[in-house]
Write a structure and sequence with these properties.
The chain is built from 7 helices and 12 strands. The protein has 269 residues and is an alpha+beta fold. The chain has a 4-stranded mixed β-sheet with strand order 1-4-6-5, covered by helices on one side. Strands 2-3-7-8 form a 4-stranded antiparallel β-sheet. Strands 10-11-9-12 form a 4-stranded antiparallel β-sheet, covered by helices on one side.
Length: 269
């Protein structure tokens, strides 16, 4: 079975406090983006994992798709599978590609092994794999709170706009990004800010990680400023970085760059 995991951007990201369980409480809007990987999983005699496209660093046993299979194997005694992943979503870039791959892996294996898990069951399992994972089972914009797994679908429609994503070849780990940040309660609630006209987001909606990440990687701040110079209505670091995006009223011209970059309509999956 083949599915096409998609990316996401964060519109605003408030890091509110460090929790007793080691996670942080956040508030962010997750918005799905039609930049996709390709994931194929079929039953097999032995566990096999192959990939193409962007190189995947690290030990393949740590890949979240493998972790998804191990989770279902341990809970439901499913058999081995053959996995093929064509990687198009940049990694370590704040676009949620690994989390999306894991969530879609759960969806595929639920079907091919006839586990009959409903959406609530799948989201509980996805939360065991990572804080971003449950979102990719929703196919809709969501306000994320708690550690990112408390999700509320919101009526945010940006389909008339264009998204320009630039992903420098910088891998920023989650731990690195949090090391540059001091949590604090925001003055304004993101749930109230997101309903403002998009043109007003620039001066009201922020990503708390920008201050520390931009200090360490000033070229990312330069990209953000350049997007505004090119006419972006709103621009931001997404997640913990390193991708920077701009939202445009008209399709923007892509600049010449060695960095991976994408221009996409902001249509929902």
């Amino acid at each position: 079975m083949i599915l096409f995991p998609y990316a996401k951007i964060n519109i605003g990201l408030d890091v509110i406090e460090k929790r007793t369980d080691g996670y942080h409480s956040i508030c962010s809007v997750f918005y799905p983006v039609l930049l996709r990987d390709t994931l194929e999983i079929v039953p097999a005699g032995n566990l096999i994992f192959n990939s193409s496209g962007l190189p995947i660093p690290g030990n393949k046993d740590q890949n979240l798709v493998i972790k998804a299979w191990e989770l279902l194997r341990d809970k439901f005694k499913i058999g081995p599978v053959k996995i093929f992943l064509d990687k198009r979503i940049p990694m370590g870039a704040g676009l949620g590609g690994g989390s999306s791959d894991a969530a879609f892996a759960l969806k595929i294996m639920n079907q091919i092994f006839d586990l009959q898990l409903n959406i609530d069951n799948l989201m509980e399992l996805a939360a065991e794999l990572g804080s971003d994972c449950p979102f990719f089972l929703m196919d809709a914009p969501a306000l994320a709170t708690g550690r990112g797994t408390d999700l509320k679908e919101i009526p945010l429609y940006l389909s008339k706009y264009w998204l320009y994503v630039i992903s420098p070849k910088i891998h920023i780990s989650t731990s690195e990004a949090y090391g540059e940040l001091t949590p604090e309660v925001p003055e304004k609630n993101l749930q109230d800010l997101i309903v403002m006209p998009l043109e007003e987001w620039k001066n009201n909606i922020k990503n708390d990680f920008e201050k520390g990440v931009f200090r360490k990687y000033p070229e990312l701040n330069e990209i953000k400023n350049n997007l505004y110079k090119r006419g972006a209505l709103y621009a931001s670091l997404t997640g913990t970085g390193s991708s920077v995006y701009g939202i445009f009223a008209e399709r923007p011209e892509m600049i010449k760059s060695d960095f991976p970059q994408f221009v996409l309509p902001l249509k929902l999956p």
